[in-house]
């Protein structure tokens, strides 16, 4: 009965993940047109930073129309800008410890020219339009590029420059490889991608390899070393305890 229930649960999860991925990928195709395949490729690779393909696609869709407008309909540039923004969000959350939802909400607000949540990014700027303008000027000093606050692509690019100057770029992928929490997130994202691919009829070889790699990294490079440290610390801890008593 337990095995049967587990199998049923597995089927339900696979169907759920597949359904969500179908819907979000459909959104990518609607927004980005011919460039949607590039967006899907980025989505599949995002698990390395702890982001599932579905979560990635949902974010790319949420501000895709505004990015298309910013790049005058150039969907290829819009896809690249969306990818940079999504990776920046993950890096910011990983480094600053902010809940990823708060960071995503801030980015979605920028797409509507709402800057009240700029301080969610913890980059040293308050939640006002004036502070966003100050961020753009600071980014211009670093990059030599003139940024327009009315252009979402410029806003996202300026944030990327500031985060790069603070050493945030690539942090999420690094933590997904080297830390317990990060590797656990990467493993979960890989599992979601694998289940979604199973139910949508895609090629499972890539997601399966990604899942096995992430599981191995979590177990042998992060979990086991931490457990070893705990076991090794028990004798000296007990000795110190008895000495103190």
Indicate the radius of gyration in whole angstroms.
Answer: 21 Å
What class would the helix/strand composition place it in? mainly alpha
Count of distinct strands: 0
Overall geometric form: flat
Note the beta-strand portion: under 5%
Sketch the topology as an H/E string, one letter per element: HHHHHHHHHHH
User: Distance N terminus to C terminus?
Assistant: 51 Å
The quaternary organization reads as single chain
- Sheet bearing the most strands, described? none
Topology readout:
Blueprint: H1 2-32, H2 36-45, H3 53-62, H4 64-70, H5 75-96, H6 100-110, H7 129-143, H8 152-165, H9 171-178, H10 180-200, H11 205-244
Helix pairs in contact: 1-2, 1-3, 1-10, 2-3, 2-5, 4-5, 5-6, 5-8, 5-9, 7-8, 9-10, 10-11
Would you give an account of this structure?
By secondary structure, this protein is mainly α. It is built from eleven helices and no strands. The protein has helices spanning 2-32, 36-45, 53-62, 64-70, 75-96, 100-110, 129-143, 152-165, 171-178, 180-200, 205-244. Helix 5 packs across helix 9 (171-178). The radius of gyration is 21 Å and the shape is flat. The model has no long low-confidence stretch (mean pLDDT 92).
Task: Give a brief outline of the structure.
The chain is an all-alpha fold and 245 residues long. The chain is 77% helix and 0% strand. It starts with a helix and ends with a helix.
